[in-house]
Amino acid sequence: MSIDAVKERQSALAERLKSLRLRRGxxxxxxxxxxxxxxxxxxKIENGLMSPTYDVLLRLAHGLGVDVAELFVPAREHMGxxxxxVERAGEGEIHETxxxxxxxxxxxxxxxxxxxxRSTIKARDLAADEGWSRHEGEEFVYVLEGAxxxxxxxxxxVILEAGDCFYIDSRxxxxxxxxxxxxxxxxxxxxxxxxxxxxxxxSGSGSSGNEENRDE
Length: 216
Prior knowledge:
The protein is α+β, with helices and mostly antiparallel strands. The chain is built from four helices and nine strands; from the N terminus they run ααααβββββββββ. A six-stranded antiparallel sheet has the order 1-2-3-9-4-7, with no helix packed on it. Strands 6-5-8 form a three-stranded antiparallel sheet, with no helix packed on it. Strand 1 and strand 2 (100-104) form a beta hairpin. The longest helix is centred in the first third of the chain and has 21 residues, at 3-23.
């Protein structure tokens, strides 16, 4: 993705974030307090100066009381019988992080119990403490292309190739990294605990492992 395209998507997120904040009549400080991020970090994101990791997006969405997907596009439908969402090939909002490129699928529906993504796991070197995540809910990942390595808090790491899959409790510290020479592609489903909207993918953070701390 070009630098201009990344900046355009950061700008769209910034505008949406500001709109949701102003709709609630909050200052940046109040929004930061509700979300568990610092006011300076909120300001940088809202002004398009920082691209948040997915762990931070989880906090922003939780603080604003919306699905992660609603940080990118307004939801057009709410929970009810007979609803549906169709996503054509190549469509879906893109969110780029140092480790991943996530395409949000069927993001128009709000209050979903699961959040589907098609994600690229980038081929790059990682520090030992980079990219770890922990949050409520569960996750399912199916490898479409390439090879990935799943790291978890209580188990030995395991390499998965095309056709392999895993399902984890997201409260366990975890990360998903590339295990091959080229980018890998996966189908990623994040599922919320009962009674809570789907938070978005946990190990798509690209964070440094300090997920319990307030982010600058």
